[in-house]
Each structure stands twice: as C-alpha cells, then as structure tokens.
Amino acid sequence: MGLLEGKVVLVTGAAGGIGRECALIAAAQGAKVVVNDLGGSVKGGDAGDASAAQKTVDEIKKAGGEAVANSDSVSMKSGAENMIAQALDTFGGLHSIISPAGILRDGMFHKMPDEDWDAVLEVHLKGSYNITRAAINHFREKEEGNFVLFTSTSGLIGNIGQANYAAAKMGIAGLSRIIAMEGAAKNVRSNIIAPFAWTRMIATIPVKDETSAKRVERMKNAMRAEQVGNFAVALAAPSCTANGQIFAVRGNELVLFSQPRPVKSVARIDGWTPETILSHAFPAMEGGYTDLGATGAVFTWEPV
C-alpha cells in the first residue's frame, strides 16, 4: 500500500522537471494522476504541445499506474476548471493538487516590458489562484484535500532580475497561508515549497561569472527534481499534518522557513515626528534590518 493509495492527484507542469517527478512518484505511491502540461516553452505565450503531458502518462502506465493527460493552461480559469472536472469524471474524485507549473521572463525591473510582468503573474499567481479556486469547494464539501503550491527563494529572499517572478511567488505564499487558515476546520491543507533543483527553467538563467557557473554546476549535480518530488508527495499524503508552512528542498536538505513576524519595535509616549523617527527610531531598529543579499548570501553552505 502506497502513501497515496486510493487517492487522485492533479499535477500541473508535469511534462518535465519537478512536475514530472511529482507525477511519477505520486503514481508509484498508489495515486491515480491527472498529468497536466500545456507543453509550451519556458517563456510561455506559445500554443504548446498536447503530447507533452502524454509522455509522462505513458511512463506511469508502463510502470503499472493509472494516469490521464491534460493540456489546459493554469492561467485560464476554464482550464483549471477542466482539470478538476477531468479528475472527477475519469477517476471519481480529487484529493490533492501539486502545482509547480511556471514560466520565466527575467529582466531588470527598469527595463521590464509590461507583457513580461503580466505573463509571469498570469501563470504563477493567477494560475495558483485558478487551480485552488476551482478545487476548494470540492475539498471543503468532502472535508478532505490539500494543495502543494510552489514559491521561490527569489521571492522569499530575493534575486536580481526577477521582480515579476519574485512578486508572483510571494503572492503565492500569502494565498497558501489564507487557504490553510480558512481550510483548517474542513481538513483542507495548503503548504508551499521553494525548490532548489536543476530544471529547464533554471537552465535559462544566464551564467555571467565564475560564481554563477559554480552554483549552476552544484545544482546540476546535487539538487535534483526527484528530491523535490519526494517532498511534495509527502506533503500530499493524508498522514501529513503540516498546514500553512513554507518549506525548501535543497538537495537532501529539507528546510522550514520562518514567516514574517515582528523583529523589533520602538515606542515613544509623546508620539513621533519625522525628525525623531530619523534620529531615534531608525537607529534603534537598524540592527534588525534584513540585508540585501540574494539567495547565495543566505545559503552559504554546500548542499548535502
């Protein structure tokens, strides 16, 4: 008996990378899987290829599992609704959604075209909204269901050239938190993962210096998609109790992130003026400021 025996799982972006591994592992753990992938490019905006998802389905069936392909776009409300309907029509239920589907359109913020901002938020943030909104009432009615959504250290910590991606990924963190809070009484859970893994999306990030080249090489060798897939499937398991949490998977290292809470506060009985804020409040708080270091400045140790 697998961890997901008798369950139905929808995995988005499952033609390759993390999504594919999530689908394969979920099936190996006994789930019936709806394999979604538009089949488009990393940048999105193209027509896609309906056969992309089918390749993962064929792998699952070859291994003795049950799966069906779906090529709708998470960025479309109707597409998300079709995925949920397909799960219910084909397998008679839906218990978990694992949704790593995404695109990248990197660029410095002061040069970013509106269409690149819109496209990334449409797929990541609106896509996460569409897929959770389409399933939430089914989960609440059955009093069983969970979401495994995907954030990024680009949002949680920051990364130059990814303002659109970071904004979307931080939005997903807020979305997941509220779904978890509102769903707790109905046995509906939502958690998010910030993955470290070599995927075709990561492969598009330019390597501009030796430090970047070394980081990329580490990711290729030590941080793999199946490691993220194993964790995502564990979060989807009925025996998992985590809810409203932010995790990272970095090779064989699993990370629980803190969430925003007050760091320091200062008070003044007679109130503040702009002058006293500058002369007293800021100096008192600056020891608690978060620096502007990117992910590499936070995760300074080698992956396990």
UniProtKB/TrEMBL annotation:
UniProt-listed SUPFAM superfamilies: NAD(P)-binding Rossmann-fold domains (SSF51735)
InterPro entries recorded: KR_dom, NAD(P)-bd_dom_sf, Peroxisomal_Beta-Oxidation, Sc_DH/Rdtase_CS, SDR_fam
Pfam families, per database record: adh_short
Domain Ketoreductase: 7-201
PANTHER family: BLL2957 PROTEIN, DEHYDROGENASES, SHORT CHAIN
The protein's name in its UniProt record: Short-chain dehydrogenase/reductase SDR
